[in-house]
Design brief:
about 25% helix; six-stranded parallel β-sheet; Rossmann fold; oxidoreductase activity, acting on the CH-CH group of donors, NAD or NADP as acceptor; Zinc-binding dehydrogenase; seven-stranded mixed β-sheet; single chain; oxidoreductase; MDR_fam; GroES-like_sf; alpha/beta; 2 domains
Length: about 350
């Protein structure tokens, strides 16, 4: 343990609430002086920060499952780094840790705010923000806890080239799905999903209305499970093709996060009744008890070479806002992270 001195931390704060798409004017960068460590505290130099769709919701001042970002205060989010100074016996210097004090280069706080992680041979620490972290766990929980995936199910995943979507498609296959369909925003992403991630079919939703394309691709066999990351027209399309007793796990609605007007709902909600469908939204805060089960399975799949992942890596804290905006526009393949 080290007798520490003060240190500087560069941080990004929200200074105004976006209307529609966020801009750089909604944020500012500050440098703060961190006080010397107290007993039981650690100082961590972050190596990777996560930018995620849910953060857009936290920029609104409205009640939700998580508190909104406060104005003129440093934002938070997933990050991984290493302990550089410590006054906590359980977290010595050099320990890699996962935590929620992102949007800054140096984080400091009580040791209980930081979770030590094991380094994985052949993988960067950033996997704990993606396939080994909440991203992969969200995909797993949505399929197993919410959609109650069964062997032989036909599955549709929207936003399939994103971090959660690409994980959900692979996990569905590993859990016994017979056919996995995805949607993505370009032919390049569609090719990646079929060739690298093992999707059976992928729709480029920009080529034609998703409702028409999904009906054609699903055919008479339909789908049994829809993993929804997009909402809007994708949900409407899925309600057309879901088989009787089909299940929808609603993870996100990225198509609506920057809307300035209330979107129209699907015109086919009556299918919920007609086909005895189940539609359930979820957030991971209610399902953290799945963590041990997920970690065991993911570790095994990874060691067996059965899991693939992509990262879009943006260099520098000064580019974190751009990384967030690009992620919201779907310009990432797999998990979007900022490397410090």
């Amino acid at each position: 343990m080290t007798n520490t001195e003060s240190a500087e931390s560069t941080q990004i704060q929200l200074v105004s609430r976006p209307k529609g798409w966020p801009t750089h004017e909604n944020f500012r960068t500050v440098t703060e002086q961190l006080p010397p460590l107290e007993d039981g505290q650690v100082r961590v130099r972050n190596e990777f920060l996560s930018v995620d769709p849910y953060m857009r919701g936290r920029m609104r001042d409205e009640k939700s499952y998580i508190e909104p970002f406060a104005l003129n205060e440093t934002m938070t989010g997933g990050a991984v780094g290493r302990v550089v100074e410590s006054r906590a016996q359980d977290l010595p210097e050099g320990t890699p840790v996962l935590h929620q004090l992102g949007w800054r280069d140096v984080a400091q706080g009580p040791a209980k705010a930081f979770t030590p992680v094991q380094e994985i041979e052949g993988a960067p620490l950033s996997v704990y923000l993606g396939i080994f972290g909440l991203t992969g766990m969200t995909a797993y929980a949505g399929l197993t806890r919410i959609a109650r995936l069964r062997e032989g199910d036909r599955v549709f995943v929207s936003g399939a080239a994103g971090a959660v979507g690409s994980a959900a498609g692979q996990i569905a296959s590993l859990l016994g799905a017979s056919h996995v369909i995805g949607s993505a925003g370009s032919d390049e992403k569609a090719e990646l999903l079929t060739e690298k991630y093992g999707f059976d079919a992928v729709i480029n939703y920009k080529e034609a209305p998703i409702r028409e394309q999904l009906a054609r691709v699903a055919g008479d066999s339909g789908v049994d499970v829809y993993y929804d990351n997009v909402g809007g027209d994708h949900l409407e399309a899925a309600l057309d093709v879901l088989n009787r007793h089909g299940r929808v796990a609603v993870c996100g609605a990225i198509s609506q996060y920057n809307a300035t007007e209330a979107p129209c709902g699907p015109d086919n909600m009556g299918n919920l009744i007609k086909n005895s469908l189940t539609l359930e939204g979820f957030t991971m805060g209610d399902h953290m008890d799945v963590a041990a089960e997920f970690t065991e399975k993911m570790t095994g799949w990874f060691r067996e070479g059965r899991i693939r992942y992509d990262e879009t890596v943006v260099e520098g804290l000064e580019n974190a806002v751009d990384a967030f905006l690009d992620m919201m526009k779907g310009e990432n393949k797999g998990k979007m992270v900022v490397k410090l």
